[in-house]
Backbone:
């Protein structure tokens, strides 16, 4: 402080202003306080050579403010906050990966539960008494025996069904064969086979009913299976009626020469007819002639209606 200065009196206004640096930038305190050097309204000097660029080159990756567009392969950096005005981007999960993780979790849990159960059973058996283990083994043996018995029963039932089918087929075939045999004997089915063709000529009409009946009985006794006389089938209940020259078989008239077609052993039947005092000799004495022709194949095709029994019926035994 000089001798001319007084306490409480500031510096002389005529002295130079002291420059105090501004904390927010260069310049004097007056300039920072907003006191421009030039008065408002005055035109500032503009550089004469200043030219505005006609086309501003924008970068290719420029992003407009307010949008959250990024390249697809660019991920947000962990720990770095998103830019102002942009919401944080959520990462999407692959549904296939999530489903696979769920399945693996379930499988792992199931395996763990099975392992725990197995370990528990092993510990239970390890701590069991000898009597309990023997009882458990007996129960298992009994169960195994029951299962084996059930398997054997099922196999037996299967075999029975197979045998039943075979037996049914065999029985059906046998029944069919018996029906055919009965039909042949009854005269309801045509037949063929080895046999004889017998022709009886009666020019004097002396052949009687008894002569034809003797011929039928002799042939049956020699093994004849079926026969017909002049197109009339001979059966169990066949009746020969009439008088010489007007004979009838089962009510149907027949005329000479009488033809008998019979199936059986040709040699046996021929021998039976030609025995001394037999059918051939009797017919010859009455003036008739008999021709016997054996054959390996004769046909008996005359049919007769099936006789329905009036009094007889099958037994129920």
Residues:
């Amino acid at each position: 402080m000089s001798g001319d200065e007084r306490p409480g009196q500031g510096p002389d206004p005529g002295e130079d202003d002291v420059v105090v640096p501004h904390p927010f930038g260069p310049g004097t305190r007056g300039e920072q306080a907003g006191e421009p050097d030039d008065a408002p309204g005055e035109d500032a000097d503009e550089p004469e050579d200043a030219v505005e660029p006609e086309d501003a080159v924008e970068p290719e990756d420029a992003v407009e403010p307010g949008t959250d567009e990024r390249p697809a392969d660019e991920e947000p950096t962990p720990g770095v906050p998103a830019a102002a005005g942009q919401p944080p981007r959520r990462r999407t999960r692959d549904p296939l990966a999530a489903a696979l993780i769920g399945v693996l979790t379930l499988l792992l849990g199931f395996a763990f539960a099975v392992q725990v159960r197995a370990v528990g059973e092993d510990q239970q058996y390890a701590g069991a008494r000898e009597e309990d283990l023997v009882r458990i083994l007996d129960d298992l043996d009994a169960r195994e025996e029951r299962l084996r018995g059930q398997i054997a029963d099922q196999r037996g039932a299967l075999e029975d069904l197979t045998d039943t089918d075979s037996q049914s087929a065999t029985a059906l075939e046998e029944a069919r064969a018996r029906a055919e045999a009965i039909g042949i004997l009854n005269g309801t089915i045509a037949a063929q086979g080895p046999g004889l063709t017998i022709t009886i000529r009666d020019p004097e009409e002396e052949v009687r009913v008894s002569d034809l009946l003797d011929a039928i009985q002799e042939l049956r006794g020699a093994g004849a299976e079926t026969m017909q006389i002049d197109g009339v089938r001979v059966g169990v209940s066949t009746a020969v009626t009439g008088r010489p020259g007007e004979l009838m078989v089962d009510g149907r008239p027949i005329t000479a020469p009488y033809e008998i077609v019979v199936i059986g052993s040709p040699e046996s039947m021929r021998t039976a007819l030609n025995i001394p005092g037999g059918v051939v000799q009797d017919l010859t004495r009455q003036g008739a002639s008999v021709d016997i022709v054996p054959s390996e194949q004769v046909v008996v095709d005359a049919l007769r209606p099936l006789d329905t029994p009036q009094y007889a019926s099958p037994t129920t035994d």
